[in-house]
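Researcher: Structure prediction, please.
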Amino acid sequence: MSRRVARYALLIALAMVLSWLEAMVPASAAAPGMKLGLANLAAVFALCRMGVRDAAVISLVRVVLVSITFGNAYSFAYSFAGAALSLAVMALLKKTGKFSVLGVSIAGGVSHNVGQVLVAMAVLGTARLAWYLPALLVSGTAAGAAIGAAAGIVASRVKA
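Model: Predicted structure follows.
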C-alpha cells in the first residue's frame, strides 16, 4: 500500500512539474491552445505500468492540483474534459491489446484536444470553433507521438 502511495505522489509531482515547465513556454510558440502535453507523460506511464484505475487517479489529482495552483475554473473545465476523454480512449485502446504505447498515446493526444474543443464550444455557445479541429488534430497526433515514445522508453527502463 505505501509503495502505491509513493508512486502516486511521485507521478503527480512529476506531472505538476512538467505542467509548470510547459507553462513557461510562450503560448504563441505554435498556435493558441497547442501544447506538447508533457504532464500526460505521467498518465501514459501509469496506464502502461500500473493500470487504468491508477492512471485515472493520477490524472484527476494532477488536473485538480494544477488548476488550483496555476489556473482557474475554466482551465479546470478544459483540462478535466481533455484528460477524461483522453484517458477513456487510451484505456479502451489499451484493453484491446492491438495498439502500442505509441498508438495509444497518439489517440490520447487527439482525443484530449477534441474534449477541450467540445468544452470551448459549450462555454462559448458556438460550434464555429470546430474549424480549429484540423490543426489541433495534427498537433495532438504529433504531441501524442512524442509523449508515447517517451513513455515507452521510460516504462521499459524503470523497474516495477
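Model: The helical segments are 2-23, 40-49, 52-70, 73-96, 101-124, 133-157.
Researcher: Thanks, that helps.
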